[in-house]
Every structure is written in structure tokens, then in C-alpha cells.
Amino acid sequence: MTAPVFVVDPTVALRPGTVTLDGPEGRHAVSVRRLRVGEEVVLTDGAGTGAHGTVEAVHGKDRLDVAVSGVRTEDEPRPRITVVQALPKGDRGEVSVETMTETGVDAIVPWQAARCITQWKGERGAKSLVKWRATAREAGKQSRRLRFPEIAEAMTSKEVAALLAGADFAAVLHEEGSEPLATAALPGAGSIVLVVGPEGGVSPDELALFADAGAAPYRLGRTVLRTSTAGTAACALLLGRTGRWS
């Protein structure tokens, strides 16, 4: 089994030598995972840098020292894959973020689509965004990633259109798309942006707005996926087709 991943504070320098892990992550390592001296761990800043080492000493219930033997930095993956995710009902938003993170998405944009039942307004919106970001962080650790996906502020349809206009390949996942995503011409580098609509579907006005921005409708397959699973399926398809899973 691969070594567990823990996130260090951005101010901590990851370098060969002794690095201390404390705070909530240190408590999780000592009191929950019950790591002991000699066990392997990976420390990361979540931005692409990881330090591999072994537990050197355990202090109390929430701190340990790691003897770092090597540090590596991952380049940003190419092409970069961003999923614009319409807000699902209930906890399906966190499910979507979790599975897309485990699959390998690079960025997720919450989208307040016209037909979304869920509304991110005021304090509720702020709390929901915190949950999505915490979910991405934990899923990134669980899947042994060194670079966690970015979770943007929620966007309006006009803001999403601007994002699509700047992509090297942009698509709206739609059951009535004339072309399958599996055969679309994809860039070898740059950025790919996919739009996943709400359970009620992308409205005609939104489809027109996104088409003007260069995003055509594409279908995934013969079945209709829920909004909380479509992004994960599409990411897996693109990661295979672009060679990122090779």
C-alpha cells in the first residue's frame, strides 16, 4: 500500500531533513492513523510538491517529525481539464467533487445554472464552497495526489461563457449532442473546459450563450448520467484519450 499523504502549511519548507507535522494534520496522523516511528509518509503542499520520508519521532497526540529523504515537484498536467459543475441537490455536490478529484480533474467551477434547484446565496453559499474545497482536499489526500484541484468561486452563466471562450477545447455535455465526446478532436496541451448541467438540463438560452463562446454540445454515451456523475465519467474519458492515464 502506498504511503499516506498529509498536507503541510504553505509556510513549511519541504526539503530533505526533519520536517514537523502538527495541527489538525498532525493530530490525524498520530491519533487517527496511529503512525509510528519508521512508517513511510508523504507530505505535500497540495500545489504539486511532495516530500517522501519516514516518521522520525512522535510527540504527544498531535505532532510528529518526519525524516524527509526526497522531494519532487510535479509539473502542471497538460492539457488542463476544468469541469463547470451545475449545483446538484443535497450532498451530491460533495460526491461529485470527491469522485472528480479522485479521477484527476484539475479545476472545478460551481455553476449557478438557470434550472438549479440548489441556490448558493449569502452564508449558505459561503459554507457550501468551504465544503467543496474541504472535500477536494481530503479526496486529494486519499487518492495520493500532490496537486489538488482548484475549486473556484461560483460563477454565473455569463462568467462561464467567458471561461469557455478562453479554452482550447470547450464542450457542453448534452444528451442530444450530435457528436460523441469520445471522437472529438482534443488539444495535446492548453486547456479543456467541460460544462455539466443540472438535473433539469441546460436551458436553451444557456446552450446558445455557450455556443457563441465556442462550446458545442457533445454526448457521453447512450445512457443519461446524473449531474453528480457525468463530470467524473467525462474526466475519465478525457484522461484516457489525452494520454494522461498512459
From TrEMBL:
- Where in the numbering of this chain does the Ribosomal RNA small subunit methyltransferase E methyltransferase domain appear? 77-238
Per the record, the similarity remark reads:
Belongs to the RNA methyltransferase RsmE family.
Reactions catalysed:
uridine(1498) in 16S rRNA + S-adenosyl-L-methionine = N(3)-methyluridine(1498) in 16S rRNA + S-adenosyl-L-homocysteine + H(+)
Native species of this protein?
A: Streptomyces camponoticapitis
Cite the Pfam families for this sequence: Methyltrans_RNA (PF04452), PUA_4 (PF20260)
InterPro entries, alphabetized = Alpha/beta_knot_MTases (IPR029028), PUA-like_sf (IPR015947), RsmE (IPR006700), RsmE_MTase_dom (IPR046886), RsmE_PUA-like (IPR046887), tRNA_m1G_MTases_N (IPR029026)
Q: Which UniProt keywords apply?
A: Cytoplasm, Methyltransferase, rRNA processing, S-adenosyl-L-methionine, Transferase
Domain Ribosomal RNA small subunit methyltransferase E PUA-like, first and last residues per copy: 21-67
Principal localisation: cytoplasm
Q: Does the keyword Cytoplasm apply?
A: yes
The record's section on PANTHER family has: 16S RRNA (URACIL(1498)-N(3))-METHYLTRANSFERASE, RIBOSOMAL RNA SMALL SUBUNIT METHYLTRANSFERASE E
Write out the function statement from the record: Specifically methylates the N3 position of the uracil ring of uridine 1498 (m3U1498) in 16S rRNA. Acts on the fully assembled 30S ribosomal subunit.
Q: Please tell me which top-level EC class this enzyme sits in.
A: transferase
Q: Which GO terms describe its molecular function?
A: methyltransferase activity
Q: What is this protein called?
A: Ribosomal RNA small subunit methyltransferase E
Q: Name one GO biological process term.
A: methylation
Tell me yes or no: is S-adenosyl-L-methionine among this UniProt entry's keywords: yes
Q: Where in the cell is it found?
A: Cytoplasm
